[in-house]
Amino acid sequence: ECFHESKDEL
Amino acid sequence: MNIFRLTADMTHLMSVIVLLLKIHTIKSCAGISLKTQELYAIVFTCRYLDIFTDFISFYNTIMKVIFLWTSFSIVWYMRYHKIVRRSYDKDQDTFRHVFLMLPCLVLALLINERFTFKEVMWTFSFYLEAVAILPQLVLLQRTRNIDNLTGQYIFLLGAYRALYILNWIYRYVTEPNYVHWIPWMSGLVQTLLYGDFFYYYFLSWKNNVKLQLPA
């Protein structure tokens, strides 16, 4: 998945 | 979003608010490590590079702005505010940033999910956050008197990461192929570093005595 999908946490 | 993560984010927000209240109301940063605050500003900067490019949710964006704004405000207060800076104990707060940042940067270059600038910066922010509390814990050992607000600040800061671990367990169990070893390992190390602080904080609370860390 692209960068932001796996980075949904703060 | 799950209750563990929401509680974790609110605990993290509370820790920042407690610290800002201490600095803003009694105009003192006694016992607070500027090194740790600067490391946290770097952590948020490197982790939230995508704040303008990737919109995830209003909550996510607002919280990122709050953490960035408050972490830089605290550093500004401790460095430049004419009253607050006087209570900063720079002779005791001598931990060298570079000893933490360099190994984290090297590790981020070696172990990451993808070798892109944003990804390496994001990974670096997790490794750095895991050890960012060290200057503060060293300062606590040195300055014998730990006032209540400082103790509460550090307790909340440690508790938020422990709650994130519950969030990661919950998401691992409920979401298919949700696996992120980098935040998990970093978060575990970070929480373990608070271990002895939590122990002495609990003792001081149980025996209703002032928080004292052994030298």
UniProtKB/TrEMBL annotation, chain B:
<dbReference type="GO" id="GO:0015031">
    <property type="term" value="P:protein transport"/>
</dbReference>
<feature type="transmembrane region" description="Helical">
    <location>
        <begin position="55"/>
        <end position="77"/>
    </location>
</feature>
<dbReference type="GO" id="GO:0006621">
    <property type="term" value="P:protein retention in ER lumen"/>
</dbReference>
<keyword id="KW-0472">Membrane</keyword>
<comment type="similarity">
    <text>Belongs to the ERD2 family.</text>
</comment>
<keyword id="KW-0653">Protein transport</keyword>
<dbReference type="InterPro" id="IPR000133">
    <property type="entry name" value="ER_ret_rcpt"/>
</dbReference>
<keyword id="KW-1133">Transmembrane helix</keyword>
<keyword id="KW-0256">Endoplasmic reticulum</keyword>
<dbReference type="GO" id="GO:0046923">
    <property type="term" value="F:ER retention sequence binding"/>
</dbReference>
<feature type="transmembrane region" description="Helical">
    <location>
        <begin position="98"/>
        <end position="115"/>
    </location>
</feature>
<keyword id="KW-0931">ER-Golgi transport</keyword>
<keyword id="KW-0812">Transmembrane</keyword>
<feature type="transmembrane region" description="Helical">
    <location>
        <begin position="152"/>
        <end position="170"/>
    </location>
</feature>
<keyword id="KW-0675">Receptor</keyword>
<dbReference type="GO" id="GO:0016192">
    <property type="term" value="P:vesicle-mediated transport"/>
</dbReference>
<feature type="transmembrane region" description="Helical">
    <location>
        <begin position="182"/>
        <end position="202"/>
    </location>
</feature>
<keyword id="KW-0813">Transport</keyword>
<feature type="transmembrane region" description="Helical">
    <location>
        <begin position="121"/>
        <end position="140"/>
    </location>
</feature>
<dbReference type="Pfam" id="PF00810">
    <property type="entry name" value="ER_lumen_recept"/>
</dbReference>
<dbReference type="GO" id="GO:0005789">
    <property type="term" value="C:endoplasmic reticulum membrane"/>
</dbReference>
<protein>
    <recommendedName>
        <fullName>ER lumen protein-retaining receptor</fullName>
    </recommendedName>
</protein>
